[in-house]
Amino acid sequence: MIKGFKDFLMRGNVIDLAVAVVIGAAFGAIVTAFTNNMINPIVALLGGNNVNGLAVQLGESDKTIMDFGAIITAVINFVIVAAVVYFIFVLPMNKIKERREKGKEPGPSEPTDVELLKEIRDLLAAQQRRDG
Fold it and tell me: Cα separations (Å) of 42 from 28, 49, 69, 72?
């Protein structure tokens, strides 16, 4: 069990995953800043001149505010991150993988059991002719 875990760590997938998480977190901060400072004002503008923008306050407490603008912002945030991850990481990696697959030529096929048995039969027959 420990050997399997060590092999998993040494394969490099963990390092790739760690790098992806760090880059994703850093990029998430950039997208959050962009949506908070560029998209949110536009969404608030669409909500009218009231203080809450696209939010609705159901009661007198601040805890009863349903902020639709925040939901729209989160969706926009997600779409931006997903698009960048796809177009910057996934698409190029798929193209590289596709090119590598094209470059591979199929190697010689392994002989079948029947072919191996025929070869053994022929060798035994040739050996019997020599000996006998």
Answer: 20, 12, 10, 11
User: Which domains can be identified in the chain, with CATH numbers?
Assistant: 2-131 (1.10.1200.120)
SS3 122: helix
Name which of 34, 35, 38, 26 is nearest 75 in CA terms: 35
What pLDDT does residue 121 have? 93
Across 29-64, b (16+ Cβ under 10 Å) vs e yields eebeeebeeebbeebbeebeeeeebbbeeeeeeeee
What whole-number distance in Å separates Cα of residue 43 and Cα of residue 39?
A: 6
How much is the pTM?
0.49
CA dist., res. 67 & res. 12, Å (int):
43
Does residue 57 contact residue 65 with C-beta atoms inside 8 Å?
yes
Place of tokens 């029947």: 114
pLDDT (0 to 100) of residue 120? 92
